[in-house]
Amino acid sequence: MSKVFVIDSERKPLDPVHPGEARLLLKQGKASVYRMYPFCIILKCVMEQPEVTPLRVKFDPGSKTTGIAVVNDATGEVVFAAELTHRGQAIKSALDDRRAVRRSRRQRKTRYRKPRFNNRKSTKKGWLPPSLESRIANILTWVQRLSRYCPIAAISMELVKFDLQQIENPEVSGVQYQQGTLTGYEAREYLLEKWNRQCSYCGAKDVPLQIEHIQPRARGGTNRISNLCLACEPCNTIKGTQDIKDFLKKKPDVLQRIQAQAKAPLKDATAVSATRWALFERLQETGLPVECGSGGLTKFNRTTRALPKTHWCDAANVGKSTPIVLHVVGVVPLLIKATGHGRRKMCVTDAYGFPKQHKERKESFLGYRTGDVVKAVTPKGTFQGRIAIRHRPSFRLGKVDIHPKYMRRLHRADGYAYTQERSA
Hints:
Elements: E1 5-7, H1 19-27, E2 31-35, E3 40-43, E4 55-60, E5 65-72, E6 77-85, H2 88-107, H3 130-149, E7 152-160, H4 164-168, H5 175-179, H6 185-194, E8 209-213, E9 228-232, H7 233-239, H8 244-247, H9 252-263, H10 267-284, E10 290-294, H11 295-304, H12 311-316, E11 334-338, E12 347-349, E13 355-358, E14 364-365, E15 368-369, E16 373-378, E17 381-388, E18 395-397, E19 400-402, E20 407-411, E21 416-420
Parallel strand pairs: 1-3, 4-7, 6-11, 7-10
Antiparallel strand pairs: 2-3, 4-5, 5-6, 8-9, 11-21, 12-13, 14-15, 16-17, 16-20, 17-18, 18-19
Helix pairs in contact: 2-3, 3-10, 6-11
């Protein structure tokens, strides 16, 4: 079961406690709510610093969603779990819109201004596009936050998604790696992601899939990753040793798709691979020991422990430090979505780049900001959620307008939106 974070009166992290114990402390007045997301309480009385159990925070970085898990290595208990949704695509879309507006402005019948992109200096070493930089910043933010609420002593992350070098050349780290218990996990996990976990020929999903040679080995095909795909048992049996052109002679569109996808790069996997080493180096700067693992090892750990395929379960199974038994019963992940901290545009433009709305310079009004989580008790009922401020005493809360005098802030806007997934 997910635990509740506890900090002492000096804001130093203590061992997380059971939710029942946290409710008792709040009811007795010995503690108060310090933060809603993730839920954390602070003790009111001054007490001696007890010994705390070191915990490990584990990450499964992804292009769109990153799994987070806080694990007790000694007991195998998953103390906290979350799934962090990034906004890299939204950042790229905003930059594309800005570029289009600037280019259209230069081409109008106005005073000509030369483009200034040639005046920029060369980028510094290790520079990443803003859409990729935001993914790293999100993870580092949550490392720092979790370190303030619980005694984090180590970090684990999935550094290599697909160990292609060991797939192509098993001798890199010894024959036993390829012939031992990890046999096939690296290649299979890579193919599952590349072919969208469905049969390449008929598109069947949620069925057992087999690794299939596009060009049969009987006709000179190799075991290279570019010559492998996934097929269900009926398609694999019917194809046999036929040439793929003969097998799909009546389906030219499927043949063209398979030939293109076999050589097509994985966009999401490329984005993740481009940020993994930068993330690893920045995690090392925290001073905590950083353990690394591969995607194949993560899947092996999760499969042998009979855990479901979720982002936070993958995070809990990252690395060789994963306990033999993981206690995940009752764990409800916190769903976190990066929303950013607003925008600097003073004039909102329409789809064609023309101004349509003016923005106020103030970020807050009457002490509230857009994104604050509030609870409003009004004559018409009780409402709770994120607000959108207006520069008049009528804020938007969901689909209703509410006066600030009825509101009480529960959580300040911090660039993220939160949803607690319901347990089954």
